[in-house]
Write a structure and sequence with these properties.
This protein is α/β, with parallel strands linked by helices. The protein has two domains: 146 residues, Beta Barrel (Lyase, Ornithine Decarboxylase, Chain A, domain 1), CATH 2.40.37; 218 residues, TIM Barrel (Alpha-Beta Barrel), CATH 3.20.20. Helix content is 29%, strand content 23%. Strands 1, 12, 13, 14, 15, 16, 17 and 18 form an eight-stranded mixed β-sheet that branches. An eight-stranded parallel β-sheet has the order 4-3-2-11-10-8-6-5. Helix 7 packs across helix 8. The longest helix has 19 residues. The radius of gyration is 22 Å and the shape is elongated. 45% of the residues are buried. The protein binds pyridoxal-5'-phosphate. Pyridoxal-5'-phosphate binds next to helix 10.
Length: 384
């Protein structure tokens, strides 16, 4: 996008004007080759100050998988956020920054031995589980650790469901907590995930209903739990409006207070909501075609090198120079694979080949999923 095009681009409604300004300045610089991901640190700072502020006695652990870029994780560390990890790779990132083990939890209910051993020697002491096999593994390799059981909860209304693979029902969860205690572990909590990009505020209510049933049943067995980890799931705006985090948290806080009283500690593990809005992917149009009655637009970033969540139904907002005739487009990535199609029926002014395409809300689950399939490069991250 050359400098004289800039005036034609109006500020998209779901982006903060200061971010837009940063993006336009970077796009105008001839040194930057696409694709790249701009992360606006001011947006992350705002999110961090908001998330958790509506829930009493809460502590925020950023789910590193959403965006493990070292500049992002380092900035979150400076802001004092704690971390949730699942692998030795994520542990290595935190260890390179000197993050203490007591600020790290791991909520993946099935951990590899390599990871578990490294985490234990690093000083990580809190682990999720949801099977007897994991109780055995933890009691052998992480003796005396604090453990929390993963409950299965409804994921309806989430765009990226996370149930089925993990989580157990209340009776099994109770049994597992008891067995963990018998095995010398410290059963102190429970966790759930309502599904990522969750649009249904009642999911948290239903999950907390199940949680308090387990909590009370555990108490009857002499197990005093201390915390509920409510996972992630806070949504961000892609193309559709979403609930405000402050409204979601007000509702969760009410639910927690009425069900558990005020002694309980609430852990929150947001990923998408911390970094999603902060990222703008800068891509180029590499080709156009008319196939049947469809107008196709090909970009240098696609499903395999950044926009994987398109396959699961996430609809990104695309922006290009506003001069051309408006048309309805099928938007595809650069690879030879026919899965590499992000969206259909997207209204956009017709760009030229070589024009810049901006894709909003790309800070989470983009680069962290990306591969160099077919030789197309993974967008580099630039934090501004
Ligand atoms: C992925 C994940 C998260 C983050 O979820 P978001 O929907 O991105 O906020 C939190 N906790 C666990 C256990 C996860 O697997």
């Amino acid at each position: 996008m050359e400098d004289h095009h800039r005036d034609n681009l109006s500020v998209p409604e779901n982006i903060n004007p200061a971010t837009w300004d940063k993006v336009l300045r970077s796009v105008a610089s001839p040194d930057e080759r696409t694709p790249y991901l701009i992360i606006d640190r001011d947006v992350i700072r705002d999110k961090v100050s908001q998330i958790g502020s509506g829930i009493s006695n809460s502590r925020v652990f950023y789910a590193v998988k959403a965006n493990p870029d070292i500049s992002v994780v380092s900035f979150l560390n400076e802001l004092g956020v704690d971390f949730e990890i699942a692998s030795e790779g994520e542990l290595a990132i935190l260890s390179s920054l000197g993050v203490k083990g007591e600020r790290i939890i791991t909520s993946n209910p099935v951990k590899s031995l390599k990871f578990l051993n490294e985490a234990v020697s690093y000083g990580v002491s809190r682990y999720a589980f949801d099977s007897l096999q994991e109780v055995e593994k933890l009691s052998l390799h992480a003796p005396g650790s604090i453990v929390y059981v993963r409950l299965n909860v409804p994921n309806e209304g989430s765009e990226w469901p996370l149930s089925k693979k993990y989580g157990v029902e209340i009776d099994d969860a109770l049994h597992l907590l008891e067995r963990a205690g018998d095995a010398g572990l410290r059963p102190e909590g429970l966790t759930f995930h309502v599904g990522s990009q969750c649009h249904n505020v009642y999911n948290w209510d239903m999950a907390l209903d199940k949680s308090v049933q387990l909590w009370d049943a555990a108490r009857e067995k002499g197990i005093e739990l201390k915390f509920v980890n409510i996972g992630g799931g806070y949504p961000i705006k892609y193309t559709k409006d979403v609930m405000d985090i402050s409204d979601i948290e007000a509702q969760i806080d009410r639910s927690v207070q009425t069900r558990f009283g005020s002694d309980i500690e609430v852990h929150i593990e947001p990923g998408r909501s911390v970094v999603g809005d902060s990222g703008i992917l800068v891509a180029s149009v590499i080709g156009k075609a008319v196939r049947g009655d469809e107008n196709w637009l090909y970009l240098d970033v696609g499903v395999f090198n950044g926009l994987m969540e398109s396959l699961g139904g996430i609809k990104y907002s695309y922006f290009c120079d506003g001069r051309g005739e408006h048309k309805s487009w099928t938007i595809a990535g650069p690879s030879c694979d026919s899965f590499d199609v992000m969206d259909r029926d997207v209204e956009l002014p017709e760009p030229h080949v070589g024009d810049t395409m901006l894709i909003l809300s790309c800070g989470a689950y983009t680069v962290s999923y990306a591969s160099e399939f077919n030789g197309f490069s993974i967008p580099r991250t630039i934090m501004l």
